[in-house]
Design a protein that fits this description.
Elements (H helix, E strand, L loop, with lengths): L1 E6 L2 E3 L5 E9 L5 E8 L6 E7 L4 E3 L7 E6 L4 E6 L8 E9 L6 E3 L3 E5 L2
Parallel strand pairs: 2-11
Antiparallel strand pairs: 1-3, 3-8, 4-5, 4-9, 5-6, 7-8, 9-10, 9-11
C-alpha cells in the first residue's frame, strides 16, 4: 500500500503562482510514475503532469511552459510549480502514484483545491 499526502493549493489571483507537493509513503516499488491530475466542476479528471522514477516528464499541452514537475526520489516527493495561473486552472488537483510494471497498482491522494480568481 502507498499513502499520498498532498500540501499546497489555495486561492491565488490570475497570473500568480502556487506550488503543490505530494509525499508518498508505505511500500514503494520502482519503476513508478508520480504525477498530478486535476478535475474541474462538471469535467473529467485530466492529466496535468507526470514524472517517472527515472526522471522522464510528461505534460498536458496546455500546461507546458507554465507548470514544472519535479521529484525527490530519496523522499518520494513530487512537486508541481504552477506559474501564470489562469481562471481555467481552477480545479481540485490530485496526486497520483503508479507502479510502472505488470499488474502494478494505482494510488490517489485526497485532492487539494486550487482556485484562481480575482
Amino acid at each position: 500500500q502507498v499513502q499520498l499526502v498532498e500540501s499546497g493549493g489555495g486561492l491565488v489571483q490570475p497570473g500568480g503562482s502556487l506550488r503543490l507537493s505530494c509525499e508518498a509513503s508505505g511500500v514503494i516499488f520502482s519503476p513508478n510514475v508520480m504525477g498530478w491530475y486535476r478535475q474541474a466542476p462538471g469535467k473529467q479528471r485530466e492529466l496535468v503532469a507526470a514524472i517517472s522514477s527515472g526522471g522522464s516528464t510528461n505534460y498536458a499541452e496546455s500546461m507546458k511552459g507554465r507548470f514544472t514537475i519535479s521529484r525527490d526520489n530519496a523522499k518520494t516527493t513530487v512537486s508541481l510549480q504552477m506559474n501564470s495561473l489562469k481562471v481555467d486552472d481552477t480545479a481540485v488537483y490530485y496526486c497520483n502514484f503508479k507502479e510502472a510494471f505488470s499488474s502494478g497498482r494505482d494510488y490517489w491522494g485526497q485532492g487539494t483545491q486550487v482556485t484562481v480568481s480575482s
